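anyone else get weird line breaks when pasting these?? whatever heres mine. first is seq + tokens for prot A
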Amino acid sequence: MKLDLDQIEAMDRPELARAWEGMFNTSPPGKISQRLMRHMLAFEVQCRKHGGLSATLKRQLVAVREGKTISPAVSSRLEPGARLIREWNGVSHVVDVVEGGVMWRGSKYRSLTAVAREITGAHWSGPRFFGLTS
């Protein structure tokens, strides 16, 4: 049974239960609301169509389940157009965030870590060097 989002929205409870059984090979939980069934079915349809959760997000969800603290990736906090300034050995270094990386001194780098390595000559965490993490 191939479903689309409009079909799911129009289903009544018995139709949702049949769709659930077809999608998950099990009966829906007894007291689940129709609204939640619709949301979960729609999410599953979209996952199957577009590939589901990224490996990074899956790892983060496992970490949360295990009670570990996670920090969001720097790329998710910095958008193109952001500018970072760091003084190192009396020299101010300006890094601009661009699509797919960062620019420093007219060259594009994949990561802040690569720039921090160029500036210091040693391996540094780029986010830590630029003061984005503690």
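and prot B, same format (seq, then tokens)
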Amino acid sequence: MEITAKYQQTKAGGRAGCLLCPHKCQLDDGQSGICRVRINMDGELISIAYANPCSISVDPMEKKPLYHFLPGTDILSLAIEGCNLRCLNCQNWTISQNIPDREERYTLMPEEVIEEAIRIKSKSIAFTYSEPTVYFEYMLDTFRIARSTGIHTVMVSNGFIEREPLLELCNWLDAANIDLKCFDDALCKKLTGGSMKPVLKSLGVLRDRGIWLEIANLIIPGWSDDLQTIKRMCEWLFDNGFSSTPIHFSRFFPNYKLADTASTPEKTMYEAKNMALKCGLKYVYLGNIHTPDSGNTSCPVCGTCLIRRDGYIVRSDIGSNGICPSCNEKIPGVWK
């Protein structure tokens, strides 16, 4: 379905400028942006990604991954094709690098998304798998309705978005997982096609607006596995008010254009976790690795294990108030 895109600027000669993400694509008539979703049609920017999801599923909240936001609950998850980055390692490239109107998809208006969440008794909905900011209008309209019904809203995103649209979205957003791809700007541009700097700004916006935030970082051999770079990232997070923000280090497996790159050694994963803890980050998790303690939530003060995770099987000993029963430490999160 086509809809007039928000955050655009008309230019002389029928050009249209997109103001949604830091690419700020300037498009002649008929051209689409880097995202493949927003197209100049007769001098007006049109989104072709409204209400036509290609994927609808029910996931564990931990799959997002969100570990301090309603742990152990299910979440209705939707995706539409398109992305404003070109990650060489993308595990969902068949969706993210595709065009929304190329094939017949589901037709699901925002109010129908909410009806489906209510029907399956899901407390939350997420836009995920591809990059939801490129179908901003659909996400925004859906989240507005969700807020009025008490359904929680989640965005799983690369965070590569301009400040003004992100601020508008924050009015209706409850939680986000932001993928901080790499903490070396030159490498980040080679790996993803975009700078990390706008992502850091997005983290600050989400923090300041009180959105529940968790951060993901994929450790790719030869790209984002340098321990000194990981240390700089963790120091930056600590210095900028993210010491209590959960961070998920994910193990890389060969995929897409990095199919010849080796999997991340388990040793590297634990070195990254230990580095983050030494830098003062309190909640550090390991993803795509199945070891007994990789996903458990422990109290940073007394060390009591509060939530045990075996894959997506979750056993929680933390109350709805988020208080550690052993030492009364307040564990940040959304627990009820």
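btw re prot B: Helices lie at 93-96, 110-119, 136-149, 163-170, 185-192, 197-208, 227-239, 266-278. The longest strand covers residues 212-219.
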